Structure prediction request, 256 residues.
Amino acid sequence: MRRLLIAMGLWTISQLRTIGHMFVFLLNSFYFIFIPPFKFRLLLRQIRFFGNKSMLVILLTGSFTGMVLALQLFYILRKFGSEALLGPGIALSLIRELGPVLSALMVTGRAGSALTAELGMMRISEQIDALTAMALNPIRYLIVPNIVAAIIVFPLIVAIFDVIGIFGGYLVGVKILGIGTGTYFSLMQDYVVMEDIMVGLYKSLSFGLIVSWICCYKGFYTGYGAEGVSKSTTEAVVLCSILILIWDYFLGAVLL
Prediction:
């Protein structure tokens, strides 16, 4: 029993040390955002990396999410004789919840994993050590552009996801299920308010920070060898996915 308690205590201390190290890493990254010179060329490259290269995944996921929502909500609303509320139901579900969460999960799987692997390869090939030896701060060159780019890109990606999802629901609800076009969009204007849009914006900003922070940290401090890179990439994707869902609940409870 004593050995079990000792092992649990050592594990807890190790986890707390890791969490503290991660927060110091984040604070250090924020510090260098405001210290000139800022690398705008690297920022533009990472905006393309997070945004443009993830667009196909976002378009496909958003369109089919809206279609599935239309089918399921129509079945539910028909039981209550409220089929006319299909448009607002789809819009609110996407804007407040599904848009930010699914977009963040998709970008984590596509861009976040690639970012972790890239930084991990730079670590094991000693490119990060070379930057330090040249008196160049690796956090300024490798981490800051990714965090700023993710914070900028995530709200834009979520907005595209929401619009595509709403039109995907339109195709199913109006063209297949027979809801009127005017009913679909006019009631949406009545029920969707600015507060709902701001909730989605806050979530997308926080998810962008979480994904870039965790993926950069795991890649920057990866273990050596191919096994270390693969382990860091897997841990980054899993941890990002879990934190996105946990933070989504707490943020939703506060902004409800």
Summary: Residues 86-124 form the longest helix (39 residues).
